[in-house]
Amino acid sequence: MRKIRLVEVRSELAAGTRGASLGIDAMKVASLGKHSDFFLRFQPIRVKNENDLLFQEPKFKNAKYGEGVFTVLKRVCDAVSDLRAEGLFPIVLAGDHSTAAGTIAGIKKADPDKRLGAIWIDAHADFHSPYTTPSGNMHGMPLAMATATDNIECEQNDIEEETEALWERIKSIGMRGPKMKPEDIVFIGVRDTEPEEDYLIKKHGIKNFTTAEVTEKGVQQVSKEAMEILKDCDQIYISFDVDSLDTSISVGTGTPVPEGLTKEQALELNIELIKDKRVCCWEIVEVNPTLDTENRMANNAFEILEATTASLIQNF
Ligand SMILES: NC(=[NH2+])NCCC[C@H](N)C(=O)O
Ligand SMILES: [Mn+2]
What we know:
By secondary structure, this protein is an alpha/beta fold. The protein is built from eleven helices and eight strands. Helix 3 runs parallel beside helix 4, helix 8 packs across helix 9 and helix 10 packs parallel to helix 11. It starts with a strand and ends with a helix. The mean pLDDT is 98. The structure holds arginine (ARG) and manganese (II) ion. Manganese (II) ion binds next to loops. Its EC number is 3.5.3.1.
């Protein structure tokens, strides 16, 4: 049986709104409300954060708090890589979505010869680089970090030399060069992208299962098709950004977008996808209780976390 370890990353440096570092603890509060023993059952590893940088102005305008993001991603990479080397299954609970790049780097570092794919359940494509970012917020960049994509063809920002050097260091966490091919990414629920990201999606023929498609085809079929696209991958990482959920469920996340997945769709999708034996890591991000009422997002997110973990255990 594969053993699970929780990895807690209370980092929110890369988000544009404050509060995502409180998401993990909001899910713990949700678990208490349900009298769940979830957080008793799995021993957590805590990755140190650099959130105190937020009291200062950001140094790099196209890669805000990038020096801290680099430090945190490197720590996440090492933690995940150590767990994978021991054959453990990391469930990563994180603040902002930039951590996913550290997670991916860690998975790859432990198994450099295995082909890694990702299922990215999100409202956003998170495929910007400092050259194209509209905001400078690095939670919009993890897939560019993981695939070592600059997207110079769509360059919008004239970036400073220091930013360029930092970006090179971030792309080299774990190992130099790409950890994944863009072709080995599958999107679910992506509905808020910029033209620079649309260019990459088109260029690499990346499939996005829209909310409408999930509703039409059903979760089983979409999961089957997603896994079929990744048939040549040896390992699969699932990244679940709670902003994939519809805003009617909750706005307790930094960048909410309407027309998202229902709670049931997201729950069933994760339950189904994690059954694939190649899935080696699952991550949940962007719960922000400071933007919420009555901890709604964390309650929903915890339900998904618990059900997905149960599915993983049942299908070991
Ligand atoms: N993980 C997220 N919530 N990402 C939101 C990114 C939004 C936008 N594309 C940006 O780069 O600023
Ligand atoms: Mn995201």
